[in-house]
Amino acid sequence: MKDARNIGLFVVLVGLIPFVTDSGVVLNFVMMALYACLLAQAWNVLGGFGGQFSFGHALFFGVGAYCHVMLQLHAGCNPWVALPLAMLASALVGAFVGGLSFRYGLKGSYFALVTLAFAEVFRIVTLSLSWTGGGVGLMLPLSESPANMQFSTRAGYVWLMLGLVTLALICTAWLRHSRFGAYLQAVRDNEDAASAVGVNPFRIKLAAIILSGAFMGAGGAFYAQVFQYIDPGLAFGPHTSVEALVGAIVGGMGTLWGPVLGALALHVLADVTRNLLGQLPGINMVVYGAVLVLIVMFLPRGISGARQ
Amino acid sequence: MFDVSILFASLLNGITTGAVYALIALGLTLIYGVLHIINFAHGASLMVALYGVYFLKEHAGIDPYLAFPVVVPAMFALGYGLQRGIINRASHGKDENILLVTLGLSIILENLALLFFKSDTRTIETAYTLTTVTLGPAMIALPKLVAFVGALVVSALLVWMMRSTDLGTAIRAVAKEKQGACLMGIDVDHVYAMCFGLGLACLGAAACFLLPAYYVNPMVGSGFVLVAFTIVVLGGMGSFEGAFVGGLLIGVVESLGGLYLGESLGQVGIFVIFIAVLLFRPQGLFGARA
To answer: Domains in chain B, start-ordered, CATH in brackets?
Structure first.
């Protein structure tokens, strides 16, 4: 009940921002922060609640992005139809990767490495096929209209992203209170004990990676829709995987608001370092890496776990 | 489909490239294979070593092969310090944390390099860079042949160290039973740091062998990370002979993949092998544990 109230408050507060200001800078910041929240929350479902550390979440991101663009380009699909289909495709890839790696009992670093390898395979394959645009990438034609999911101002994208983030928050709140969520956390904390009391770890983890993949796919589809362009490096490169997991870890894994907090904090940090230190190449990423190390060292439960 | 001589040249090229991969993977075998420290900063550390070799050559005129006595101890010290000062402290004894800390370290190292050295790709020129040796119907570059011999020597040294020295015994003890080793009076933190230091020292050696035929830029290491992990797992966790053979195998797969599937798709073979090994034979080719 408390979670529902907080999510409602979050939606109203963020949803009102475009009415308060029409500054492109502010709205762009809000949009990108929400986007980072979605990626972090998607990773959190599998990594935070399920304890399965994926280092290749860009795989689902890229599949979502490519499906979203290719459905529009090759099948003439409307983006409002393409988006859920892209999420479905990412979920299916999640089922495939999860099915294989959980069936063969990959855990810990092995699981991290296998997800990384899958992302790399997809990157190389999209790079090599002419069907996916190869290294040149794919571009979405410009045709501005809400029916086409191309808005004239950032406000439309903010609301669209807010809708997706809300969906992810509702799903996470459900994980906190539902039977499935309890199973998932039991599997995370002690897989043997969980299966001894009748939980099927394989099915639970599989469901988690499917959910996580679907949300990550939505992130990819959104990215492709906003920037109207996607290429193999953007889609499957390690950058997105890192952004997703760092957001969740800095904020606090396995919590509802941690990933939101973490993604927001990292975005503010990136903006501040960019403004303070100018455009020195790499300096903002140095700060980013240092924050990751310091958080793991001093706040292993993330910002939101700092009080305990 | 292809002329035999092309196939032979491609094989030879694969084996020599594979030797360089093996060199890089040997350090990781010690770090990841033996002690299960998941070092995502392996590629970034290689990059640091390559810059070291590069600047020694450009500013002090020291030949890469003679830079050994400087680069290898320096990398050892870096590794020992990193493990003792940062990784060990931040890990709180959990595997996942090591993953994250080394990831953070690699981001820091790569972007510091970007900050100080810009993103330019740099190469060095030596008298022997373009020297080739004729082997049957094919020719290979001399630096690659040297790297092959270097990889062989380094892996032999590592095998000897693990089998016949006190440190090797201590490392094996810590890998098998940390608490027991601690009770026997082994300084576990010191052994971990020595392992990490030696692993990075291997990278120092790899950098000396690599640079005459290769280049350096801030991102050069990232391409090697997954390949190195592939080799460690393929060879069997903790097996140096396995890493050497695995490295050669991966080099050949990449070379033949490039020949038959084209330059960009050729690399796919490496990762497909990696996934297959992880799934179906996680003990690797030479691993003992089932």
So the answer is: 4-280 (1.10.3470)
